[in-house]
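Proteins fold. Shown next:

***
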Amino acid sequence: MDAELESIHDAMEREAQIALMHEQASRSKRPKVADLYKRPSSAKKEEHSIQESVKKAEKAKHWLQQFTFRERRERVE
């Protein structure tokens, strides 16, 4: 999944570079690639993925609570 996202970001950077070349050819101003496409930082990506992981774990925990397993039933009784 991470490799797929990296590939998408690489493609977007390439497209930004192509747009930059077209811009430089048609105008006198010189924009930067970062002006056209800013890759998200890895810190934000990690924070986002950790938050998503916590949410997924909470959902899984809530979903599993609907089942009664043999060991749990024996402890309850």
